[in-house]
Amino acid sequence: MLNINNLSVCFDTPQGRIKVLDNLSYRLEKGEVLAVVGESGCGKTIHSLAITRLLPPGAKITSGSIIYKDKDIVKMNEPQLRDVRGAGIGMIFQDPMMSLNPVFKVAFHLTETLRAHSKISKKEALEKAASLLKKVGIDEKFLNSYPHQLSGGMRQRVMTALALCLNPDILIADEPTTALDVTVQRQILELIKKLQKEFSASVIFITHNLAIVNNIADRVLVLYAGEKVEECPKEDLFKKPLHPYSEGLLNSVVRLSQSKARLKTIEGAPPAAGKDFKGCKFAERCPYAQERCKNERPPILNLEGGRLVKCWRYEGKSNG
Ligand SMILES: Nc1ncnc2c1ncn2[C@@H]1O[C@H](COP(=O)(O)OP(=O)(O)OP(=O)(O)O)[C@@H](O)[C@H]1O
Ligand SMILES: [Mg+2]
């Protein structure tokens, strides 16, 4: 569905060029939900904005390709990108106000998007908008509301309708529930899961919440400082994380079964963006680090069961 190869993104700053996404490669299969996880600042959002070519000013793709339907998104011009955004790849942002314009009513958002991509009358578009709202659990009377007249959960639902209205092949959801209370969070997650099945879309779900990963994902990709450090089926990650960083992430989650145990945190903080490394980027925080880890960059190792891990501890266990 999507094939990303050696994708790097840099920011040009007064202090020089800073690499925030470092040679990222992965494939998104049809109909699967891939969760992208990692601490704040590890490049989750930047990677999703690179896929839709919506990077902020100052940021640019410096290498790699993003192959969608045999074409490279990195090389596309604006008209081609317009077709991809919306009809090919829909996005749900953390903050719904990023994609909802406060001066337009809900109906306008949906009908304009529908009419920009297909030749339908205003009346047909309005009917479709009403049925989309129903699908996301909102009464059609809210077509006449402005975004600020809706609750946070309702805005998130409207944005989900907007992302899905062109029936995209791929849905990218960037922390879509972080700002919501847990009850609404669950409703939105269930909604995304239901619609993903109904529309048979592939989903890239960005989150730092491992409980959500467990609930929604088929596969997980762990990012650290702009690099992929592990990728595997969800069950494998929760049963036995291989990369020390993934292990740290899992250990820092409260589990009911260990209510009396002290919660472990990962020592230290992620490195500042743009810092130069000779060896593994995680070595300075890693409890297993050896001399070699500080001096030599580990490759991505391909282990049994299709697990990928970027760590010297698994050298010799690789399938090549
Ligand atoms: N406009 C910008 N100028 C310079 N650096 C930026 C800018 N936006 C993001 N960055 C840097 O890019 C890196 C990746 O940021 P990104 O927003 O992708 O992180 P994230 O994983 O989505 O974090 P969070 O979980 O907080 O959303 C960070 O180190 C950040 O400092
Ligand atoms: Mg982000």
TL;DR?
Helix content is 31%, strand content 23%. It has 320 residues and is α/β, with parallel strands linked by helices. The protein has an eight-stranded mixed β-sheet with strand order 6-7-8-3-9-10-12-11, with helices on both faces. Strands 2-1-4-5 form a four-stranded antiparallel β-sheet, with helices on one face.
Strand proportion: 15-25%
What is the alpha-carbon Rg in Å?
A: 21 Å
Largest sheet: 8 strands, mixed
Poorly predicted residue ranges: none
Distance between the termini: 25 Å
Class by alpha and beta content: alpha/beta
Index terms:
320 residues; alpha/beta; Rossmann fold; globular; binds adenosine-5'-triphosphate
Can you describe this structure?
This protein is of the alpha/beta class. It has a domain at 2-103 and 146-242: 3-Layer(aba) Sandwich (Rossmann fold), CATH 3.40.50.300. It is built from ten helices and twelve strands. It has helices at residues 44-51, 78-84, 106-117, 122-135, 152-164, 182-199, 210-216, 234-239, 244-251, 291-295, and strands at residues 2-13, 16-28, 33-37, 59-68, 71-72, 89-92, 170-174, 202-206, 219-224, 227-233, 301-303, 307-309. The strands form two sheets. It has an eight-stranded mixed beta sheet, with helices on both faces. The chain starts with a strand and ends in an 11-residue tail after the last strand. The model has no long low-confidence stretch (mean pLDDT 90). The chain binds adenosine-5'-triphosphate and magnesium ion. Magnesium ion (MG) binds at residues 44-45, 174. Adenosine-5'-triphosphate binds next to α1.
